[in-house]
Amino acid sequence: MTHRIKIASFSLKDTMECGQFFRYTKLEDIYTVQSGDRVFSLQQKGPYVFFEGVDESTLVRFFRLEDDFESIMRDIERDPVVREARRRYPGLRLIRQDPWECLVSFLCSSAKAISHIRAVIENLCRSSGRKILCGSTVTYGFPEPSCIRNPEQLEPVKAGFRAPYLLNASRCVDRQHLLELKNLSYDKARADLMKLPGVGKKVADCTLLYSLDFLEAFPVDTWIKKGLQKVYFSERQVGEKAMEKFVSEHFGPCAGYAQLYLYHDWRKHLS
Prior knowledge:
Layout: E1 3-6, H1 12-17, E2 24-27, E3 30-35, E4 38-45, E5 48-52, H2 56-62, H3 69-76, H4 80-88, H5 99-107, H6 114-128, E6 131-134, E7 137-140, H7 151-154, H8 163-172, H9 175-180, H10 186-193, H11 201-211, H12 222-231, H13 240-251, H14 255-269
Antiparallel strand pairs: 1-5, 2-3, 3-4, 4-5, 6-7
Helix pairs in contact: 4-14, 5-11, 10-11
């Protein structure tokens, strides 16, 4: 790889492997990333990320390098738990994904381990995506909404109870509608997404945070709920509304960055 970009406070490994993004393979220290119909390679050496198959401006957008990262970190590190998580993973960054791909990926994520999610998504791409020749290797792009047409097409995907959700999303959602959610408030954009069958608060928040720039979104899954109750509520059972209120008030407008660090840290260290 001949192209490179210098990124301060960045870990390619933690950013790719923290559970926010699923379409990549890793061979030794080289990551091959698939996003839509684009395939590109990344390798980190010290502060430099070497890349091939993508231009620098796309990479800047993908890793949100235009964010005022240090200012965001100062804001969320007022919380000592987040500060400790960042000390462990100082180079962890948010990825900005394609909204359609992000929505479908997290529709596939319900009650699944990350390895299973990645397998379902890969099966979906093989069954419905466009064939891409990458060197001598054949791979598949992420299917457009119009490419997922019938239940039979989803049988090899092995999506289980998620299959009807995927089919319904392909019929009800288009890219323009997802992009227009950026013009709404967080609450209204979230409510709009949750009109789709299978899209609960977690899937909606993942889509809003990881693809539509709503940094106040704070996805709550099993790990996050367990961690919040243990660390912030002294093991007390807390209702959903009370937890949402606490998250919004405590972590503020960049709560999604705090969630990223807490999720990655708690998934590895919370017993």
